[in-house]
From TrEMBL:
Entry superkingdom: Eukaryota
MF terms (GO), sorted A to Z: serine-type endopeptidase inhibitor activity
A GO CC term attached to the entry: extracellular space
PANTHER family named among the record's database cross-references: BPTI_KUNITZ INHIBITOR DOMAIN-CONTAINING PROTEIN (PTHR10083:SF374), KUNITZ-TYPE PROTEASE INHIBITOR-RELATED (PTHR10083)
Position of the signal peptide: 1-17
Residue span, BPTI/Kunitz inhibitor domain: 30-80
Keyword GTP-binding: no
Protein's name according to its UniProt entry: GL12882
InterPro entries from the UniProt entry: Kunitz_BPTI (IPR002223), Kunitz_BPTI_sf (IPR036880), TFPI/VKTCI-like (IPR050098)
Gene3D superfamilies, per the entry: Pancreatic trypsin inhibitor Kunitz domain (4.10.410.10)
The keyword Signal appears for this protein: yes
Pfam family, one: Kunitz_BPTI
SUPFAM superfamilies (UniProt xref): BPTI-like
Length: 121
């Protein structure tokens, strides 16, 4: 059981030390993976994906989560978007399957958060 909690915590931890070489972030909160949190009072919010330099929407549950949460796309872009350096090539998503993989990861993180909150109580 302890190992499961550790894996769940690793999935939702900030990845500040794991930013690929050549990527730039404007603020530390832009590095976090989007996290809907354990609650179920769903609100549409925006989170920054530093790998694609885009803001993506997701549904936040109303509690928990992390700082990578913005209530408008404009706020997300203004806070986190990095304007491309002409000498740097940023990874582009290949197709819709890339977004599907990210959405699936958000679902996994959400499930881990819910399980962790039930185990801890």
């Amino acid at each position: 059981m302890y190992l499961y909690l550790t894996i769940g915590q690793l999935l939702v931890a900030p990845v500040a030390g794991l930013v690929p070489q050549g990527f730039t972030v404007r603020q530390p909160k832009c590095i976090y993976l989007v996290d809907p949190g354990p609650c179920k009072d769903w609100v549409k919010v925006w989170g920054f994906d530093y790998l694609t330099n885009r803001c993506i929407f997701y549904y936040y549950g109303g509690c928990g989560g992390n700082p990578n949460r913005f209530y408008t796309k404009a706020e997300c872009l203004e806070t986190c978007r990095v304007y491309d350096d002409p000498n740097h090539t940023r990874r582009k998503p290949d197709d819709d399957s890339d977004m599907l993989r990210r959405t699936s990861m958000i679902g996994i993180i959400s499930i881990c958060n819910r399980v962790n909150s039930k185990i801890i109580k």
